[in-house]
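thread: overnight batch results

M.L. [08:02]
morning all. the overnight job finished for the chain we discussed friday. pasting input first so we're all looking at the same thing
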Amino acid sequence: VLQTPLVTIPIDFRFYMPDPKMTEWRKKRDLLKKQGVPPKDRPPKPKPNSEYPTKQLLALDMIQAFQRHFPDINVTGILADALYGDAHFMDGASSVFSGTQVVSQLRWNQMVIYKNKEVNLKTYFDSYLGPGVKKTLVIRGGKEQKVTILSARLK
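M.L. [08:03]
and the structure it wrote out:
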């Protein structure tokens, strides 16, 4: 999805098909884990099959295709959900647009830049924001959930 200050436009999509061998391996691994079988006694993870690209590879391919087809559009950021938070995707997506920032789920141990100083994210939230704002939100199905809201503008 391309988002501008004026419009949001869907620009590409891909269909994901999981690798059947990987799916079978995960099911078996999870079952053996539940049974308490140590990792060394479980079957090894199968090698990736290029006929079944991962969701991360499909997303990188879409980003690269967009850059090839629309080289004059200035991309200032890429937002990806937590599934895409691995280093390969983050670095790959950033490099497509010459170092564009890629944002995914933050982790407590990440370093961020606040007022030109590098700070640990947990330290930032503990030191600079205080206890946060407590709210009750209505989530799916009408269920109420108590949450604490904190936000920050960080690099």
